[in-house]
Amino acid sequence: MxxxxxxxxxxxxxxIPDVIAPGLRVLFCGINPGLxxxxxxxxxxxxxxxxxxxxxxxxxxxxxxxxxxxxxxxGYGLGITNMVPRASARAxxxxxxxxxxxxxxxxxxxxxxxxxWLAVLGIGAYRSAFARPKATIGPQPDTIGTARLWILPNxxxxxxxxxxxxxxxxxxxxxxxxxx
Length: 180
Known about the structure:
By secondary structure, the chain is α/β, with parallel strands linked by helices. The chain has a single domain, classed as Uracil-DNA glycosylase-like domain (Uracil-DNA Glycosylase, subunit E), CATH 3.40.470. The protein contains six helices and five strands; from the N terminus they run H-E-H-H-E-H-E-H-E-E-H. It has helices at 5-10, 35-40, 51-57, 96-113, 123-130, 164-177; strands at 26-30, 78-82, 117-121, 138-144, 147-152. A five-stranded mixed sheet has the order 2-1-3-5-4. Helix 4 (96-113) crosses helix 5 (123-130). The longest helix has 18 residues, at 96-113. The N and C termini lie far apart (33 Å). Keywords: DNA damage, DNA repair, Glycosidase, Hydrolase. Residues 17-180 form the Uracil-DNA glycosylase-like domain. It is an enzyme of class 3 (hydrolase). This is TDG/mug DNA glycosylase family protein.
């Protein structure tokens, strides 16, 4: 579905509810919702976002889910949240203070819901939010609460460094380690 520029701009600062439940195997954490996602109310909804294909390609889901099917994720032991809840056109519109505050809110959420793994989708956002400038893609030595931590590349179509096959490889590494 195509949205007008006015519809997209009107979605700025909207918040999409988390898809979360206690005791998930993996809680995926995006940077923040894009405007397309904010209009639809579904995480990673913009056509061209590779989250859903990477999730399926790595074996987390038995079939390719559509963003509108996000509520099925807890049944697979998965959830989605965001570092910063407000929608924006681009993640680079977020301030360092917003990312730091988002890291604190994420820590509280992970402590409350106790997923086995937290997978942050976007290394730059993780580095900023948690003051870890040398963090790399993959497993991290730190934990958040009792959750083990893994950094994945941002699946946005704007991240040209990671095309779908390479994203699937990274998601598969987590899938294997999380023992699905």
